[in-house]
Specification:
14-stranded antiparallel sheet; AttH-like fold; mainly beta; about 0% helix; 1 helix; nine-stranded antiparallel sheet
Amino acid sequence: MPVPLDEYPIHQTPLSLAHAGSSDRNFYDRCYFNAHDRSGDIFLVTGLGFYPNLGVKDAYAAVRRGSKQWVVRCSDEIDDDRMHPTVGPYRIEVLEPLKQVRIVCDADSHGIGFDLTWDGSFPAIDEERHLMRQGRRTIIDTWRFAQLGSWSGTLRVDGDELAVTPDTWLGSRDRSWGIRPVGEAEPAGRPVHDDTFGFWWLYVPLRFETFAIVVIAQENGAGHRTLNDAVRIWKDGRVDQLGWPRVQIDYRSGTRHPERARIHLTERDGSPFVIDVEPSCPVPLHVGCGYGGDPEWLHGSWRGRDWAESAVYDFDDPAVAGRLPWGVVDHVARATVGDHVGHGLFEHGTIGRHEPSGFTDLGSVAP
């Protein structure tokens, strides 16, 4: 049977839009948002995804405040109305494509609620295609656009209601689709990792008064760069490429927690463009949010009809804090470029070996 999307001239394959163009079980279509008030005291990370070949849709929201992280997650069977994405108490309304989006979460009984409207401050841009293989198999093949903007509305957490105004609340968002590991774990087969395995990831979208920056870098354990992009976006839509990012990260002694970073970029004329970043208010995406390494829930997992649950994680608890090194962590970022001050996201993860950072194996930490 056709679905409502089939009414529109947007087909890319000789299939109904009820079906993905790929039969890979790991095909996904997902959005991500974050919101913060520049202070580094509170941070919202949230998103919604569809997994057509698994028959699942889900959503999550996480709020970090102080040492605690509140998380709500919900899941259901997939439906055909993707023009109005809804999962339980969570819904997204595209008010003006690529400019204005409303997200609503009526999950106050689970500790989190919000009604927030996103306004893009800069044009959305395409990022570089992301391709990653594990052994001989392609495990990531995705496309994504990103945008910097501001928020308005209300955010409710643990019984407190916060006014969200665009003069204070900023953030970034992305939409991605393609193939990446989702759902229940597949049979392992022959192991493809050994003691030399390493994964290093950096994603830094930043918003300044007159321009925005998006930096992406991924490296293997030897420090070989497998994904690389650095651009500056102007409000009139111009995009400048800023060369090959060179990244220095200072980690807290005895950990892999980033305390500061310096990103060296290059203007077209060869002059340096240097960003100093101070991360704060970390939200580990693998602690309750369903990203890789989360032992409690993974995006695309089947949990039955109308499933929802919540959790509160206290990072003063050593058992919770001990999970931090095993995934990607989002941080509120304060950044400076000369006299320009900006804010945004510092997303970073380093797992296993990374020779440029001095990490030799899974257990090594900064001296």
